[in-house]
Amino acid sequence: MDKLEGHKSKPRFHVYEHVLSALLGLTFGLVMFDRGAINFLSPFIVADLKLSDGQLGLAASALSLTWAFAGFLVGRASDAARRRKPYLIAAVIAFSLCSAASSLAGGFVMLVAIRLLMGLAEGPVAPLANTLLLGASGERRRGLNSGIMAVCGMLLGAVAAPVLLVGLATAFGWRAAFLLAGLPGLVLAAVIALFVRETRGQTVAVSDVALTPLLQLLRIRNILLCAVIASLLLAFVSIGMIFLPLYLVQVRHLSAVEMGLVMSAIGLTGLVAGLAVPTLSDRLGRKPVLVGLGLVGAGLPLGGLLWSGGGVGVAGILAVSMMTAALPSLAIAMVPGESVDPRDRGAALGLVMGVAELAGGFAAPALAGLLANRFGLGATLIVAGACAVGAALISLALIETAPRRVTSLVGHKVLLEAA
Predict the structure, then answer these.
(1) pLDDT tens digit sequence for 211-223
(2) Dihedral angle sign, alpha carbons of residues 166, 170, 171, 173
(3) What's the pLDDT score for residue 71?
């Protein structure tokens, strides 16, 4: 596979792979930093704009609607052009500007409108970044490189974001926090332009290679299953990250600073999972990791609702439970990317991510917000836990794709043709 994609398994290529993983991780981390800003700043935004729980859920999830379509359409366009880098640079610049524009929101409608625009800009980043990374990685190092990318992303998007954003909002107001969050993206766009190169072997002319039709991609068993699994996992992550800060403040009665520290603890645990989970999946297989760690997500409602101890205890339980948040990269990128021909990866990843964003990123948080209006914020944790368990059970039906676990060419052919 490495040879087909223009890479030989020689050490001199490893440095570029790992640096690329870190850079793309920081890029996606900035996406999650900007995307998650509304979650960490929710206590400030709700109080200022007088939003209900349902409105908060809709505003936070609105960008998933446009994110879904943008991810697939730009992913397919990059497949046809055989170029990922220009699209990625344009997307990074656009979402940085949209993040800064969030500071201008004067009410619910304007906030939703800005979030929809941000989704158009951010949607292409994940399929483009993962396609570049898969193409540049040796097949036995895909999980490791994906883990490096995840860790760098979590450092920025999960660990640094809660403390920095809450600190900025406390000192200068939530609008200033949004404004400052958009600035680093412009620097990253310049670094990508200078450092990232197109993967060799992926820049052939469109006429030389036919793209697989969309309907044929949908017939691949793993693509269909991953769309469902990724939807459930993204619902788990989205609902947890949107409503958990509000739950900790309003129900557990933590201060905003304490809430930020708890969310950072979750991010730190996620760092370990972010590197360990994809790397472990290289050896054990994607399927058993998805099943096993998916079940861990059941601890979110158990810890949040039943733990009666102090903040340290609830932080520990929630941090372990949220390790399940490391799984979406397997369902959205790794398994789909290994289940199709490299020339179709942009479309395949964009398709799975698009479905997941619509169902798990948009519909699920909006529904959870409505349930919270009627039954209280604790209902959101129950829904999130149920989604994680459902993803684990459906993962049992996947066909294994990890190169070390695919034992024969016949088995690989069955994988690609299974419907």
Answers:
(1) 666 677 778 899 9
(2) positive
(3) 82
Query: Nearest Cα to 116, choosing from 55, 70, 47, 75?
Result: 70
Q: 12-199+213-417: CATH homologous superfamily?
A: MFS general substrate transporter like domains (1.20.1250.20)
pLDDT the model gives residue 212: 64
Domain boundaries of the chain, sorted by first residue: 12-199+213-417
Give DSSP secondary structure letters for 20-38. Answer: HHHHHHHHHHHHHHHHHHH
Q: Which of 327, 310, 303 is nearest to 261 (CA)?
A: 310
Residues of the chain with pLDDT under 50: 1-13, 201-209, 408-417, 419
Q: What angle do CA 279, 282, 287 make, to 5 degrees?
A: 105
Q: How many other C-beta atoms are found inside a 10 Å radius of the C-beta of residue 292?
A: 15
User: What pTM was estimated for this model as a whole?
Assistant: 0.72
pLDDT for the residue 411 = 45
Q: What is the largest CA-CA distance in the chain?
A: 64
Measured between alpha carbons, how far is 158 from 143 in angstroms, rounded to an integer?
20
List, in order, residues 6 or more apart from 315 with CB less than 8 Å away: 261, 262, 265, 266
CA dist 349 and 351 (Å) reads 5
